[in-house]
Structure formats: structure tokens, C-alpha cells
Amino acid sequence: MRKSLLAIITAAIMSLSFTASADLTTHMQSLAKQFQIVNTTEDSAEFIAALDAMRTDAQAASEILPGSLTENSEEVKNYKQGYNDLIAAIDAAAELAKAGKMAEAKVAAEKIAEVRNTNHKQFR
């Protein structure tokens, strides 16, 4: 009985870990897709919509820890800070676009790639 209970608990934990990993992957793929739109569109409404979607995905992904990180570690703080930096870069580009400054917004969006690249090196 005890071994069966242990097996069930282990399976449940593994399932949750796999689900979290899949959710994180989904958010990362959506971020990449939306960033491609940000980089290619000249339409301000489409640009803003893509940034809004990116912000939503970044916020959701920031709540999911990859299996390689342990709760309450210094790495987790850095991981969360990376998402805060990403969201700040998204917000800066969106603010400029909403003000009708698309050229400046496009330049500001380059910061999103910098934040992504920095954090991918550290956490991927």
C-alpha cells in the first residue's frame, strides 16, 4: 500500500513538472512569435497588440520556474528579475507606439532582444 501511494505521489509530481514545463514552452513560443511581428510590422495597432500579447506571456511565464531552478535560490531572483526587465522593455516600446512614435518604438523594441539574449544565456 505504501509503495502504491509513493508511486502515485511521484507520478503526480512528475505530471505537474511536465505540465509546468509545457506551459513555459508555450509562453516562450508565443513570445517569439509576437516578437517576430514586432520586428516586421509597420502597423502601430498590430505592433501594440503584439507587445500586449508579449507582456501577458512574460507575466505568465515569470510565475513558472523551470525544473533547473530550485525554489528560493539566488537564481530564482535573477530569473524573476529577467522577466521584470523584459516587461519593462515591452512597456517602454508600447508607450512610445501608443504616443505615435513608431520609429522610436522600433528602436526601443531592440532592448527586448537584448534582455532575451542575456537571459537565455543564463537560464536556457
From TrEMBL:
InterPro entries assigned: Cyt_b562, Cyt_c/b562
Keywords: Signal
Superkingdom, natural source: Bacteria
Reported cofactor(s): heme b
SUPFAM superfamilies, alphabetized: Cytochromes
Signal peptide annotation: 1-22
Family indicated by similarity: Belongs to the cytochrome b562 family.
Role played: Electron-transport protein of unknown function.
Protein name: Cytochrome b562
